[in-house]
Amino acid sequence: MVGEGSVLRRAIEARKLPSMILWGPPGSGKTTLARIAAKRAGARFVPIQAVSMGVADLRAAIARAIERRRATAEATVLFIDEIHRFNKGQQDAVLPHVENGDIVLIGATTENPSFEVNSALLSRSRVYVLKALTDEHVRAIVERALADAERGLSGQVTIEEKAMEFLVRAANGDARVALNALELAAASSRHITLPQVQDALQRRSLLYDRAGDQHYDTISAYIKSVRGSDPDAALYWLVRMIDSGEDPMFIARRLVILAAEDVGLADPQALVVASAAQQATHLIGFPEGYFPLAEATIYLAAAPKSDSVKRAYGAVIDDIEHTRADPVPLHLRNAVTGLMASLGYGRDYKYAHDRADHFAADETYLPESLAGRRYYEPTDLGVEARIKTRLDDLRKRVAEARKRPSG
Predict the structure, then answer these.
(1) Quick one: which of 162, 164, 223, 381 is 20 to 30 A from 285 by CA?
(2) How much is the pLDDT for 279?
(3) ω into residue 231 within 30 of 0, thus cis?
(4) Angle formed by the axes of helices 194-201 and 175-186, nearest 10°
(5) Please, which pLDDT band fits residue 406 given cuts at 50, 70 and 90?
(6) Domains of the chain by start residue, with CATH
(7) How far apart are CA 129 and CA 25, in angstroms?
(8) For residue 158, what are the contacts with CB-CB under 8 A and spacing of at least 6?
(9) 20-29, 202-211, 324-333 — which is least confidently predicted?
(10) Which residue, 178, 172, 138, is CA-closest to 25?
(11) pLDDT on residue 203
(12) Of 290, 297, 313, which Cα lies nearest the Cα of 375?
């Protein structure tokens, strides 16, 4: 993003800093990058916390920026941390000043700006995506902190290798987590050991937000793993969600949908298993609720797959939207009153159970304009293969009955 010759690097060095949105996980350097960019561009850096600032505070900061620009020609970088927490009114208050060049806006967010930043503001800003730091990056940052005499811990502490390895892994790409844990451990000992780092971290914190990108990304990975018949990956994402505090009933509902949508009639028992898991989880709660969810996850992942029900639904919806909504044929209507009977309701209806094989091949059930239309096409997988064999036979008999002369 800011390497030699990059567009952003050239803009910063030319002191023509564009408004931008920095999107990335916690501890990936969004605030640091904004500070460096403002300093290199010779601009005043004014940080604002979206969670604690209202429209009045925002307007006051912008007014000072305008006054500063008129008095000294100094540009102002208005840095809004967690800009996704700004409501529409707050975002609208910034918009005209970004357009006029009164301020350079740099917003930082952990959430997808496509959903969290209004389109007008987004269209006037460039979006730069920061990724989580690798373990090598985190280790380099920790080593610098240990070697820096002015701002770090040089000459004050040492750290054993096992402790360093655990600290780097547990930080999970978040430099802030690593540095905070290092500082806390260093406050209690001159030689940092593995138990001291574990105590300082307490517990590895997984990046997750039950209403944000991680929520949707993780459930997406879980669903695709079950659909792709990979029980190991499905279990991994299941435990990631559970460990991060996801609502167990949200997971259970997705399992029920998966059973009907992706396993379908290839194994009708999948819906029974998923529904039982949903009920069991609701009944017993967590942590024991993991077991029925895990059992259903493995069953659905290992089951044969069919999306024939979903395809049939799509085909029906297409016909409903693009064909006439003809009335129900008279012979399919119940003649509840004498008047209805005299109008032909139920006349000539062929009762399937009156036939030896309980099937009336010469009866029709769709409106005449849709006669012969097929929506459900079974696959050759699992139980659905047996359904396909039976339906092929029934449909063949219907076709033969239609060829015979009426009467």
Answers:
(1) 223
(2) 92
(3) no
(4) 120
(5) low
(6) 7-129 (3.40.50.300), 135-201 (1.10.8.60), 213-302 (1.20.272.10), 326-403 (1.10.3710)
(7) 9
(8) 146, 190, 191, 192
(9) 202-211
(10) 172
(11) 55
(12) 313
Q: What is 77-141 written as a DSSP string?
A: EEEEETGGGS-HHHHHHHHHHHHHTS-EEEEEESS-HHHHS-HHHHHTSEEEEPPPPPHHHHHHH
Q: How far apart are CA 346 and CA 359, in angstroms?
A: 18
Nearest to 255 by CA among 263, 244, 246: 263
Distances (CA, A) of 171 to 7, 21, 162, 214: 31, 24, 14, 17
Bridge partners for 126 per DSSP? 20
pLDDT tens figures, 320-356: 888 888 888 888 888 888 888 888 888 888 888 888 8
Helix (H) and strand (E) counts for the chain?
Answer: 18, 7
375 CB neighbour count, 10 Å cutoff: 17
Place of tokens 């990058």: 33
Q: Determine contact, residues 263/306, Cβ cutoff 8 Å.
A: yes
Least confident of 100-114, 201-215, 231-245: 201-215
